[in-house]
Design goal:
The protein is α/β, with parallel strands linked by helices. Helices cover 46% and strands 17% of the residues. The chain contains 19 helices and 13 strands. Strand 1 and strand 2 form a beta hairpin. The longest helix is centred in the middle third of the chain and has 21 residues. It is globular, with a radius of gyration of 23 Å.
């Protein structure tokens, strides 16, 4: 066991982003490195592991507790790194700033300091850590264009949780992929409290509400909790709004869902269609990025939900959806669902659970876990859209465990 940047213990499991970050730090100074991902996926731990493996002198600064309006804080820690280099006669130094997005106007300050070092020939390398796509939206693409490389840290996969903590397939499907509370899954009450109090509350209150224009924080929290409980289900925003206690409107809810998506917490998948207007006007299918979020707000207990065939089918489908979302940014593909309403009372709606689209090519995936009989959705989709690939995951298809262990690029490549 070791301590990470924030003082928590962690398992010495090395994620695949370790080699990428280490190699880039050891390269000649050209770009600052940005490690981005949702809360508690191991960003700080990964940096700590890399620092233990390199010999470059370094300093780690964490913006937690710093006044958000004190943008000069970044200048001060940067200047301290420069002075340290000068006093020690160093030709190379590394500055790591964690939770950088919490400082107002951070990107402009970072740009100014980085460019000053470039002009003055100061070999000060920089690693920034911050929340997933909120960090991108808050300055990287505008202020720091051309000055950084992004290393994405997604939620933990089944393979990682299995190898690091011995989590079984069923446990992963139910308890999701957060490493911090992995040792608590046998105590479900304690596990659930940890997810809500130590993970969700900071993510919503600090990463979402503090960094976005949220005019109704209570509505945002309710939307998140309700959306998580509807993961893998299709429900209109109008009907969802009717289940919320706070007052809002469809436009507000849609905007809040986009922010939750940017934080890699909850998304609303659009229906696959040939034109953008039909996609945007579709009824959303809710999907968590980590099944722990669904279980925290929807689950009864592991035994009850595992032995309920219909209920378990939703957990399996949601786990497959979370796995697909985990690499969507990295591999530059989009995830949709598809449904065609029945034309008569004797027919059922035809549905495909997930449609992956990259470079105009579609891959259709139907999930079965014993909860359904024959489904005509997949052949209907194939006939209508001629996807590159189409297959079933689960009953009479690709093994669920094999799919959750796979690299998505091997499927859509």
């Amino acid at each position: 066991m070791s301590k990470n940047l924030k003082g928590f213990e962690y398992m010495e499991y090395v994620r695949k982003q370790f080699d990428t970050l280490k190699e880039r730090i050891l390269e000649p100074r050209k770009f600052m490195q940005v490690l981005a991902g949702p809360r508690q996926v191991g960003k700080s731990t990964l940096v700590e592991q890399v620092l233990a493996e390199i010999t470059i002198p370094h300093n780690v600064e964490v913006a937690d507790g710093v006044d958000p309006k004190d943008s000069d804080w970044i200048h001060r820690v940067w200047e301290a790194a420069r002075i340290t280099m000068a006093l020690r006669g160093l030709t190379e130094y590394l500055l790591v700033i964690d939770e950088v997005q919490k400082i107002d106007n951070w990107s402009e300050v970072v740009k100014r300091e980085w460019d000053a070092d470039k002009r003055n020939g100061v070999n000060l390398k920089v690693v920034l850590l911050g929340s997933s796509r909120l960090l991108l939206k808050k300055g990287l693409t505008e202020s720091l264009a051309g000055r950084y490389e992004l290393i994405r840290m997604p939620h933990w996969s089944y393979r990682e949780m299995r190898d690091a903590f011995g989590v079984t397939l069923d446990e992963y499907i139910y308890f999701g992929g957060y490493p911090g509370p992995a040792h608590l899954i046998k105590d479900e009450i304690r596990w659930r409290k940890y997810i809500k109090d130590s993970l969700v509350a900071p993510a919503i209150e600090k990463d979402v509400i503090m960094t976005s224009n949220i005019y109704k924080p209570a509505l945002m929290k309710q939307l998140f909790e309700l959306g998580c409980s509807y993961s893998a289900e299709i429900l209109s925003l109008t009907k969802l709004m009717g289940r919320l206690q706070d007052v809002g409107n469809v436009t507000t809810l849609a905007g809040y869902l986009e922010i939750l998506d940017e934080c890699a917490l909850l998304t609303a998948l659009q229906k696959y269609a040939n034109d953008e207007a039909r996609k945007r006007g579709s009824i959303p299918k809710y999907q968590v990025y980590n099944n722990a979020l669904m279980t925290a707000y929807k689950g009864r207990n592991f035994v009850a939900d595992r032995t309920d065939t219909k209920s378990w089918g939703r957990w399996v489908e949601s786990a497959i959806g979370a796995h697909l979302l985990s690499m969507a940014d990295e591999l530059d593909y989009e995830v949709y669902y598809w449904r065609e309403s029945a034309k008569s009372k004797d027919e059922k709606d035809r549905e495909v659970d997930f449609v992956i689209v990259r470079d105009g090519e579609a891959t259709a995936i139907e999930v079965k876990s014993g909860r359904r009989g024959m489904n005509t959705g997949l052949p209907a989709f194939v006939e209508a859209f001629h996807p590159q690939h189409s297959f079933v995951v689960g009953t009479s298809g690709v093994c669920i465990e094999d799919f959750l262990c796979c690299e998505i690029e091997d499927i859509i490549g």
